[in-house]
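ok so for the tutorial part 2 we go from a plain amino acid sequence to predicted structure tokens. step 1 is just haveing the sequence, like this:
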Amino acid sequence: MLGDDPPHEMPITILGAGRSVIGESVALDLRQDEVTRAVEDFLPITPRGAVRSSRDRRAGLRELGLPYETDIAITRHLASFLARSSTAVGEHHRAVVVIDGRLMVRPDSVLFNGGFFTPQVVRDRVSLALQSWFGRAPRMLTAGNLEAAVAIGAATYARLRAGVGPSMSLVKAGSGRAYFIAVRAPHTDGAITAVCVLARGTEEGTDARLGHPFTVTTNHPVSFALYSSAIRSDRSGDIVALDTDEVQQHTSLVTVLRYGRKSRHVELPVRLLVAFTEVGTLELWCESQSSEHRWRLQFQTRNGEEVEDGGPGEAVSTDVMVAEEAIIAAEDAIRSVFDGRDPDEADLGAENLVAHLEKTTGFGKSAWPVGVVRRLADALLAVADGRRRSAPLEARWLNLFGFCIRPGFGAAKDPWRVGEARKVYVAGITFTNSIQNRVEWLVLWQRAAGGFSAGQQCELAQRVMGEMGLSGKKAARLNPQEERESWRLLASLERLDAVARVRFGDEVVRRIGRDVDNVSVLGRLGARAPIYGPLTCVVPPADAARWINQLAALRRMTPDLAAAIVQIGALTGDPLRDVEESVRATARARLRDAGFDDDALRPLFEVVATSAADVNRVFGEPVPQGLRLEIQAGPRVSQDIR
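step 2 — the prediction. this is what the tokens look like for a chain of 642 residues:
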């Protein structure tokens, strides 16, 4: 419709959803002038100097579980980018011009990228917008294969870094943002005093020690407020005043730096050590100047999100900090248990390893932050073969490794860790006659399954289904606890398609009269808001409604049954996932009759953001502190799990 000699109109068909993919399809004729108007609306010729407002970050259409951009005018976003870039290159640069009182970068050339720009009319609109702003159109560079341009560029970059192929110059951009740590509270004039810990353009794999001395309070909660800017050109170590309009605030880290044996507060002089890792994480170390103590602060800077305005509580998360020396001692303890020595000669045994690790780190294991548990997971992987020496060692290894890698994603290097865990999965359990070991095996894959691909989850499900007799084969003789954990494992596989999840749910409902222990499994299977799985794998609303009605018809309504009904019927604001209002109304009435108050039923009335407690309840245990998950419930909710 946007090509040469386009047709006047063209028929299109919009398919229905779920089981009504054909029956509810809609056919209509799309006219060429309608397509042209759509292009013009997305690429309007905006007035000179008109840029996108950066203030209204919350407003805008939110539908189908996705946040939509408030301003759909692509040209206004382009103008904003050119205005911001003027600060980065400097007002005296030859490319910087004044447009109606606003500094903007005037491009000399434009290289189009992506299939969106395949039609000539789209490229012409961009050229026309630039010409209206600057009085002349820039040179349009020739680009082939627009649809694959990004993939080709990424592949070429990877080959050059690996030294494969022809010799070419490798252009490195480094960090696209500068990062700052606030050193005291914001001033009343809106400025923030901060130290630049990473300059914009810093290459991955760079580390440095900042020369400026700082002081921190130990054994007391302290805050590290992280800011970033795509336009500032400060150098690492600079103490600067930041304007709130030119920086983005990221989730702050509130932690306790443990020092000494007593809990008294000590003002300790420290230096900051900074590392920008190859995987895009910003690591900061507080190094004591009066002792050998060192504490690591790890911020995720890749795929991170800006904190929306809404009060200081939304911008702060808490974490505990374990000294590097304590982590090293914990890693040594793991090696001493699994390294192959005679258990009678070892200082530690499998039965008291966790207690020793808690004493060494100074915190109970549920308080260990993600940086600590992943370090311990790596140590356990290094001695994985040691688990084969005895049944108690294998049970302890399976339990502790599963705890340290849960939920299988969310931290740097987790894909590698899951890949190593898959080797354990392929090798299988060693002491198959031990019920405890078989149970720990199932729990491990519940905890790690979030890192499995859809195909890997499918293979895992087939294996578990075979043992449970759900795939036509004779069921293995399972201990009741094994059967419960097997169901929980199947429910945790959120990348299985909806057909499989409906099948599992129907089987749970069929057994619910004689086995109510698995009702929480049904809640996870039918949940409207997956924790990590794609929305396409959510059980269709019709099946969810059927389960709700069957649960509501049970004579005795327990808290677990009520929780499952609320989870399956929770309102998301997404019409493709929400069950009908009549079904929710029936569920509300049944639960009220059973004595449950409206606060417990809120998700059946309105869209409720998924909380940390909700996520922990779904997983059956707290996820590691400091882990950032994206919960897909109605409007997109970015939830820091603490």
